[in-house]
């Protein structure tokens, strides 16, 4: 989850680098949840997250920030982020059950890649 790397906001603020960050927020530890869904019969353990307000945290570091909750808002939000001359944090709220592919299961080879 993003909270594992949130200290990068302090580095961005201190060094004044124009980094663009996009967080896909499904309110889970996404890859762990996906593995539990696909390989452990949807037995979810310690993967659902109660997240802080990431946009407010980014703004606390003087980083421009926005949250997108609707698909139709995404294109304009990305354009706004790219047009910004400074650092920018974009939180994109996605469905909890969205999975990330391609992926290779543990112990498998590249020829065993899963596309869905």
TrEMBL record:
**Documented EC number(s):** 2.2.1.6
Q: What SUPFAM superfamilies does its record include?
A: Thiamin diphosphate-binding fold (THDP-binding)
The record's keywords, sorted A to Z, are: Transferase
Looking at the UniProt entry, the stretches that span the membrane are none
The segment(s) forming the Thiamine pyrophosphate enzyme TPP-binding domain are: 1-92
> InterPro entries under this entry?
THDP-binding (IPR029061), TPP_enz (IPR045229), TPP_enzyme_TPP-bd (IPR011766)
> Which Pfam families does this chain map to?
TPP_enzyme_C
Tell me the GO molecular function terms: acetolactate synthase activity; flavin adenine dinucleotide binding; thiamine pyrophosphate binding
Q: Which residues form a coiled coil?
A: none
Report the top EC class in one word: transferase
Please list the GO biological process terms of this entry: isoleucine biosynthetic process; L-valine biosynthetic process
Source domain of life = Bacteria
Would you tell me the Gene Ontology cellular component terms? acetolactate synthase complex
UniProt record similarity statement:
Belongs to the TPP enzyme family.
- Name listed for the protein in its UniProt record: Acetolactate synthase large subunit
Species name for this entry? Answer: Seonamhaeicola marinus
């Amino acid at each position: 989850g993003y909270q594992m790397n949130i200290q990068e906001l302090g580095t961005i603020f201190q060094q004044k680098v124009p980094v663009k960050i996009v967080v896909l927020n499904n309110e889970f530890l996404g890859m762990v949840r996906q593995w539990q869904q696909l390989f452990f019969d949807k037995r979810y353990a310690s993967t659902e997250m109660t997240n802080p307000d990431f946009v407010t945290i980014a703004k606390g570091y003087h980083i421009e920030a926005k949250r997108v909750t609707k698909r139709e808002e995404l294109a304009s939000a990305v354009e706004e982020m790219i047009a910004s001359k400074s650092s920018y944090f974009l939180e994109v709220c996605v469905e909890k059950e969205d999975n990330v592919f391609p992926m290779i299961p543990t112990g498998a080879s590249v020829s065993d890649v899963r596309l869905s």
